[in-house]
User: Fold these one by one.
Assistant:
Number 1:
Amino acid sequence: MNFRRGRQREEPEINFIPMIDLLLVILIFLMVTTTYSKFAEMKINLPSAQGDTSQQVATPITVAVAASGEMEVAGRKLAAGDKAGLQTQLRDAAAGKKDPVVVVNADAKATHQAVVSVMEAARAAGLLQLTFATQNTTP
C-alpha cells in the first residue's frame, strides 16, 4: 500500500531574504557607530641638532634645497623638480674628485619629496656618500 502515491516530497529551501535584511541592519549600525580617526598635524621645526661638527676628509659637494623646491648645486641654481638637471650637475661637480660626499642643506620648510629627489639624483649619479647639514641650537 502506497499512501503517498501522488505526493512528492518538497525539497527544503533556505530563505535568504531575512538574512540579507539582518546583514543590512548590521552594516548600517557599523557605519553609523564607526569613528573615523583623523591624523593630528604636528607642528615641527626641522632641522636642528646638537653635537660636534664632524671632520670631513672627503671632498664635499653642497646641494641647497629651498623651501620652494628650488635647488642649488655647487653655486649653480636649478628649477624645482628638475631631476635630470640635478643629476647632471651632481655628476659634473663630482668629476675628478676623490670620494665626494654630497652635503644636503635643506631648508626647514622644504618638502621631503625635494630632499628625496636629491638623494635619488645622487644615487643615479654614482655618489653613494650622502649627509645632511643641520644648524646647532644654542641654549
Number 2:
Amino acid sequence: MNEFEQDVQSKTNDVADAGAGFLISFLFFALIFIIATAADIIGR
C-alpha cells in the first residue's frame, strides 16, 4: 500500500468539495452579473 494512503489529510468526499467550489464560483459570477445589470439599468 502507498504510504500516502495510510496518512490521509482529509477524509471528506471529493464530490462535496467540488460541488461547494462550483457553487461558490457560480454565485460569485452571478453576483457580478447582477451588479453589472443593475448598473446598466441605472445608467440609462
Number 3:
Amino acid sequence: MKQIAKTLLLSIMTSFFAFALLKFPDQSLEASIRGLNIWWEVVFPSLLPFFITAELLISFGVVKFIGVLFEPIMRPLFNVPGIGSFGWIMGMSSGYPTGAKIAARLREEEQLSQIEAERLVSFTNASSPLFIFGAVSIGFFHDVKLGVLLATCHYIGNALVGICMRFYRIKEDKQQKKSKSGKSSVSIRRAFKEMHQTRIRHDRPLGEVLGDAVLNSIKTLVVVGGFIVLFSVITKLLFIINISPIIASVFEQLLNILSLPGEIALPFLSGLFEITIGAQMLSQITTDSFLATAILVSFILGFNGFSVQAQVASIIGKTDIRFAPYFFSRLLHGIIASLLTVILYKPLYLDKQAFEMDDVAVSQEVSQNFWVTTLDMLKQMGPIITIVFLGLAGLILYKRILKKDVA
C-alpha cells in the first residue's frame, strides 16, 4: 500500500510539473536560461579543477598519504579517518558538492566505511569563500563586512556539525576503531608506504588516469548542471502558480513567533529551494533590523538548499551512503550558523561598521576588488572553459569507442 501511494504521489507531482511547463513556457525557458548561465559561467569552471585534482590525488595515493598524517587530528575530532581532512579542506575551498564527490569516491575505493562516509558527507559540503564573499556579500548586499560575519559563522558552524556527527552510530563501528587504534601516531615513513601501495593498486597508464579524471569530473558536473536548471525552473513555477506565497504564509507565522519580520518569509522559502535566488531576494528586502536578514542568509547557506541537496543525493546514490544523515546535518548546520550570527553580529559586523578608519577601508576595498575580479573573470572565461572541456570529454570518449571497436 505504501509503494502504491508513493507511485501515485510521484506520478501526480510529475504530471503537475509537466502541465505547468506547458502552461508557462516563456517563464520556464527564462528560468532554464538563468540556471544554465549560472552553471556554465561559474559552477563548471570553478569546480572542474578541484574535481580533476581530487581524482588524480586519490589515484596517485596522495590522499592516503595525507590521511595517515592527519589521522591523530581527524579521528578524535570527527571520528573519521585522516583522509577525511582532504574532503573537508577541498569542500570548504571549492564549495558544494565537492565534499560529497570526494566522500563517494573514497567510499568506492573502500578507504572509508559506510558510517565514516556518512559522517564525512555531513560536514564537508560547505559554501565556497568565492560564493559567500563574491556573490552574496558583495554581489547582492554590496557589503564586504557581511561576508566576514557569514563566512565565520558558516565555517565554525560546519566544524561544530562535524563534531556533533562524530557520535552518529558510534557503537556500530567500535570494533573497527579498536582494530585501528594501534596506528594513530604520525609517521612519514608509513604515510609514504601507504601512498606507494595505493598507487600500485591503481597502476594504469598516465593518459588513462588523466582521461578518467576528466570524464568522471565532467559527468558529475553535467548532473550538477541539470539539477541547477531543474530547481531554477521549479522555483519559478511555484511562484507563478501561487504555491510559494501560500507556503510562505505558514513560514510567516513561524517567523513572527521567532520575532523575525514576516515579509522575509517568501525570500526565505525561495532560499530553501535555491540559495542564490533566496540570497538575492533577501538582499532586496528592507527591514528594521538587518540582523534578521543576516540570520536567514546564514541558515540557507548552512541548509544548502534543496537544489544542492539533490545534487549530493545523486552523487552518493551510486554508493551505499545514506542521505538521511546528510539532511539532518544540514538542518543542524543552519540552526548553529543562525545562532552564531546572533552571537557574533555585534563584534564582527556592527563594531566594524562603527569603527571605520582609512586603513580598514583600504583593506576592505582590496578584498572586495579581489572577489569581484575573480567572479567577473569566471563569468567572462567560464563559458569558454566549459565548452573546451566538454569538447575534450567528447574527444576522449570518441577515441575510447574507436579503441574498443578495433579491439
